[in-house]
Q: What sequence folds into this?
């Protein structure tokens, strides 16, 4: 698998707001300088560049994993925005993802995910 900072940076620019990008990069780099470079190169410039899944599918997987983990509200909110604004999902489809997850992750985590939807769509 090829890792590319250029492709990673391009992907970040296409899918995230400058403010959101600056926030997560600052959080990672504050105590571990360069940690955000790994995310850009390996995740956005590597994993996301692989064949086999469309961005829409990747966003569904990301939303499911983050909702199931809990405590990841800023990241989940960002992936919800990307799912709708970039990956072509409707708000209703995102909501159905969380409804589908409810028996697996529980009502409290589903409610938390729905709050993230409200933040993503109202913010």
A:
């Amino acid at each position: 698998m090829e890792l590319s900072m250029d492709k990673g940076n391009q992907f970040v620019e296409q899918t995230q707001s400058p403010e959101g990008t600056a926030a997560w990069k600052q959080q990672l780099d504050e105590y571990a300088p360069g940690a955000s470079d790994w995310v850009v190169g390996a995740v956005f410039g590597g994993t996301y560049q692989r064949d086999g899944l469309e961005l829409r599918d990747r966003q569904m997987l990301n939303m499911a994993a983050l909702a199931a983990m809990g405590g990841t509200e800023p990241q989940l909110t960002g992936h919800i925005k990307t799912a709708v604004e970039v990956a072509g999902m409707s708000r209703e489809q995102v909501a159905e993802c969380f409804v589908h997850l409810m028996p697996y992750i529980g009502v409290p985590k589903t409610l938390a995910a729905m709050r993230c939807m409200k933040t993503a769509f109202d913010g």
Remarks:
- DSSP finds seven helices and no strands in the chain.
